[in-house]
Amino acid sequence: MTRVLMLTLVLPALLWAPVPLNRAAAQTPAKAPPVKAPPAKSPPPEPTPRAAAPIDLTGYWVSVITEDWPYRMLTAPKGDAGSLPVTAEARKFAADWDPAADQADGRACRPYGAAGIIRRPGRLHISWQNDATLQVEFSAGGQIRLLSFDTAAKAPAEHTWQGHSTAQWFKVRNWAQFSPPTVAPVGGTLKVLTTNLRAGYLQSNGFPYSEDATMTEYFDRVTYDGQPWLIVTTVIEDPRYLRDRLYWTSNFKQEPNAAKWQPKPCDTN
In this structure, are residues 171 and 145 in contact, taking their beta carbons and an 8 Å threshold? Predict the structure, then answer.
């Protein structure tokens, strides 16, 4: 009976004994759920060349001719190169210049190609064709140049009067010599590189540039005596017809509207 009594007492104790817990587990705090990082924000889009323009070149501009007047306002005598740093081959070419032959051969626009037209007396109309292309219209010869900010675009194989021009904005000022006005530009500079030119004339009396010529330009807007001016600095290189780089500075004064805008087709006068 004693054994029965002991089993009766022990069994309930075993059945009701508390189960010991793992002490380390009890002391470890519960892990917080991982925090998810917020989704990365997309960078803002780059401004278009039109929106990023440091200066406004749009509007109507009239040429103010203060240098090389006899070679720009008039047709210089045959063989007179003026200040052009031409080669002997260029002089030989110009000696055979025949404006009537140019007209008959459909080459009347030779004096109005991109490398020479900036020196022709007349007016410019600059506007945005789209957000990445500036359009420059010339009253002289009725020509149109497109200045593309897509620098990755390949130039077409065809050579044309106005060539293939790529443009870039620079916030660094262009400190080229200005005459007039003799003041530095503010805001920035438009740099333009032109290639793929069809052979044309640097002067209306037949001094040529070849299809190998390249032209670099800097367009600056300045204010002189309260009046906006456009200064175009031109650098032309031609291994065939120029023995050195040709530098030009051409000045244009802004006009209030299109009242005097009268484009004329190419001619040989």
Answer: no
Residue 149 gets the label, from left (phi > 0), alpha (psi -120 to 50) or beta, of alpha
Question: In whole angstroms, how far apart are CA 95 and each of 82, 108, 197, 210?
Answer: 14, 18, 22, 16
Q: Mean pLDDT, to the nearest integer, of 251-264?
A: 97
| Rg, the chain, Cα only | 37
> Is the pTM for the entire model greater than 0.70?
yes
Q: What is the DSSP letter of 130?
A: E
Residue 206: what are its φ and ψ, rounded to 5°?
Answer: 95, 5
**Measured distance CA(146)–CA(124) in Å, rounded:** 13
Residue 15 has a pLDDT of 44
What span, in angstroms and rounded, lies between the C-alpha atoms of 206 and 80?
9
DSSP three-state, residue 7: helix
- pLDDT one-digit tens code per residue, 156-167: 889 999 999 999
CA angle 114, 190, 250 (to 5 degrees): 50
DSSP bridge pairs for 249: 233
Report residue 29 as tokens.
């705090």
Cα–Cα distance for residue pair 202/260, rounded to 1 Å: 26
7 pLDDT above the threshold of 90: no
Residue 13 φ then ψ, to 5°: -65, -40
User: How many other C-beta atoms are found inside a 10 Å radius of the C-beta of residue 234?
Assistant: 21
